[in-house]
Amino acid sequence: MSDVNNELFFITSNEHKFREVSQILKAYNVNIKWYKVKYTEIQADQIEEIAFQSAKLLATRLNFDFFLEDTGLFIETLNGFPGPFSAYVYRTIGNNGILRLLQHVENRNAYFKTCVAYYDSREKTIHTFVGVMEGRISYKIRGEQWGFDPIFIPKGYKKTYAEMGSEKNKISHRTKAIEKFALWYVKNIKKT
Description:
seven-stranded mixed sheet
């Protein structure tokens, strides 16, 4: 029987995210378990606030170490929309809807931002880690991946995230946030 106090749980309902994050953390010899739990996510203008408050809420219900993340796509010409509402926007209008909003728009600058919030059950503290990837929105859907990956071209690249395959995990906003978390976790928390 495993001891949950020595395990690290990633709270997400998204299997794609779990697989992506697991792969990134393998490089740091950090193994995670998938934990699904229903909770009400607050609405806020900043993903950092959403991630922190979500971890704070779940810390009242869970007595083990966990982390979660919140991600947003921020489009410059749309004043940062969809931003913290990215999941809802994706579910309702999808990539085609974003492309329609940007029809005839030249400024397609955008960035993805991820905030990881880690809850330390021993210290009863929450730590956050942010990763950003600048880029632009493509003119059409390219590639077959989940989320906004088929329309986001990272800065310095010609391919969308969806066209990059495993290369995406080396450069993405989520990778940047998870790597910051992993470096801190290995140094401060992980037991060998």
